[in-house]
Amino acid sequence: MAVPISLVDYDRTAELKAFDETKAGVQGLVAGGATKVPQIFVLPPKVRDTDAGANQEAEVEKRLRLPLVDLDGDRAEAVEAIRRAIGEWGFFQVVGHGMPLRAMEAALEGVRSFHEGNAGAKAALYSRDARRAVMYSCNFGLYQVPVPNWRDTLYCRMAPDPPKPEELPDSCREVLMEYTDHVNELGKTLFELLSEALGLNPKYLEDMDCKQGLILLCHYYPPCPEPDIAIGTSKHSDSGFLTVLLQDHIGGLQVLHQDKWVEVLPIPGALVINIGDLLQMISNDKFRSVEHRVVAKKEGPRISIACFFSTHFHPCSTRLYGPIKELISGESPPLYREILVRDYVAEYYSRGLDGRAAKSHFRL
Fold first, then answer.
1. Domain ranges in the chain?
2. For labeling, which of 44, 105, 206, 355 is most exposed (least CB within 10 Å)?
3. What is the CA 180 to chain-centroid distance, rounded?
4. Which residues neighbour 249 within 8 Å (Cβ) at sequence distance 6 or greater?
5. Whether the model pTM is above 0.70
6. What percentage of the chain exceeds 90 in pLDDT?
7. Is 156 in contact with 168 (CB distance < 8 Å)?
8. Are 47 and 228 in contact (CB under 8 A)?
């Protein structure tokens, strides 16, 4: 059988390298007038049926809605609502969180300004060096993943060793610093509520350093000329303890619920919260870390800021994490072995964003 000329001529490694060397990301392709998705971003037909097929209306459950929790009400009711939401979904949205809408909107606009701003300023930050506190890139694992995502990212490690203010881009420096302060306050509240949902004292998870580290991934998803053959973010579960997501009005985030993809409709002023793998492990599966993805869209750009609480930003940490002893009993034996967070993260990134849960590697 004859091999299509396009496959004979296609040098994937060379195309990846050429794209990477532009330091302009996917936004550079769109700004340059691209009307086709480059081959390196095209999902194989077998994967396309399950991933990019998310854009087909019949395959996405649109009647279900993520639980919505109001934090500005009765505390016991909030704890119970969070416990139910995590058990059923692993995700929920929050309102009444105390974060000013002005700060949320300014952060999104600042991220947009950076990604659509001066190409030279972005290129100066372009890097794949994970040791940097601030960097810009298109797909952290560009050369490792089977198919790159249609997405660019500004990475900012804000704790425990924050960057110097001058390391942050001028276009979003002040708004991201202010937004980080608000996220830290919300994180404190959420970890208290999560501790109580586990039947522990409110400071338990924070005392375990679950809130110690914080990174911001400021994503920019340009309009995609062929959304049915590309993916915004591949299906995955998050690696850390807790994620706080701010998204704009475009939508595209989907959560896997009862073997169906459910669209997470943006709610003005709400934030999306989800559990990461590490929190599932230390909760001994009382909490669930759930797969999710972002579909590519013709509309856009889609802008989001994902804030990850974890401890793996201190690679020299010797603290072991395993199922919390208070949650273990004869009826509920430990399901995971104790691990160093850096070992978990190494396993997580060796697998890539492909839906194969790293936590299963550490299961007893």
1. 11-362
2. 44
3. 16
4. 266, 268
5. yes
6. 80
7. yes
8. no
